[in-house]
């Protein structure tokens, strides 16, 4: 089950066996090929630069162009499959009759947003005809995937809108049109002093689409679009420019690469080997199954940048073992969600990469700064698990046991990969993107040779899955950047800066950090992690530096606060996904989850009041 299944229940278009399903499958395989080609480009460029001392100038630009193809074509297939991240909790609070209308309204909003993106990208395509890139390629080649992807999104959204109750299909479209016409008529014929300002329409669209259960990426994109439509001084061509600009950066290539590396190692059987080894070593201690869940999540987080991928890898092995030992799976689900919060600062976490990129903080420095807080939180969670846990018979967890030597060998192969990632990024020898490409090749070649569980068909499936996951993440990043652009035009950074600076001046810098934590926790819960970081990271980090907070300390605190919101009930998307993966219900997980959340909140406060927790290791390693 996908994350979208868990949190929004969007119908699966790609489940069709007809032409649309076949087209989606074909595009997915194209995206997988683009991802593989991108890994090859970066890997070869690293070999040429560092080993043959013959750097190539075209590699970065080609890799970024391929990234555009992956994000927009992949984003279309994710929409076709109904897997874009969204939340339907607010929609479920509506009366039953209104829920069907809201679901259809959401589909029409997605279709309209995709249509506007298509129109804007066509304008941008026309403007790019006579423009060339620095290496001489036609600029329109970078814009064409946006046009194609947005056209495919229109098709997917219309197909979804045409499904379901016929009684609400057309009335919901009429409602969308009526709301748009009403806003236009009010601003056209009312006195100027009573006009609905662009920021008012943006706010109404944001909360309206959020309540309707629209996928998060399209909540952000639609809100920005409304502003562009309402503000006559902004040409529509800038809309697609800003959406493209949000993900057209070399450093963000590390996101799909680390996700792919983690999935490759998990498919090689690393998760089952590692967890069985941990059960053999610690199975007889009190609370052993939950302690093993925490340690395994931390270990996998050192390979994969995606916390949901880590939970999927661990839960698929640990939850059946928990049930065999007659433990409470709700407790395990709570532990896994809390472990994901802890693992947010373990490199190479995607959110650390995004925070470093948007806030102009050293990504290598953030990786180092996050290690000690993660270790402290892991120790605290393990202590809690031991206190509330009980002993089990480890023989029941894995009735069929593997030989010890292969288990140790599997753990060693994974440990080498974790060390390679950490050393590569923190030493400054290579960028996080280059290290992530090496990690993919290592997982594919060394992992494949050591475990011998990957087949060619399995590798293809993994590349397809990784491309979809990466496109989903990066399309949110792209959409969030368009919203961040219009918020800048509204001078929100100036307003926030003035308020936060005054807050720090009157009540101290700790009050500023606490206010920032509250902001990030709330929006981390309702927006998902990446958009919250993209919108607030660049707003708050300069203020933090101005009031005397070190950016590495502030970055780690923000990522932990975001993770706390993302996995907290009742809104946290991450908690919904965890319950889906573990086969539990959120109402049954909330109660055992609370003690872990309180512990994490206390430890976050400790991190805030004791900056050395995050700054000691960067200082020792000369990363400050």
Q: Could you characterize what this model shows?
A:
Helices cover 77% and strands 0% of the residues. With 624 residues, it is mainly alpha-helical.
What low-confidence regions span 5 or more consecutive residues with pLDDT below 50? Answer: 1-15
Order of helices and strands: HHHHHHHHHHHHHHHHHHHHHHHHHHHHH
DSSP strand tally: 0
User: Structural class per helix/strand content?
Assistant: mainly alpha
Rg calculated over all Cα atoms = 24 Å
The number of helical elements comes to: 29
Shape: globular
What distance lies between the first and last C-alpha atoms, to the nearest angstrom? 42 Å
Give the mean pLDDT: 86
**Fraction of residues in helix:** over 70%
User: What is the percentage of strand-forming residues?
Assistant: under 5%
Summarize the structure in short.
With 624 residues, the protein is an all-alpha fold.
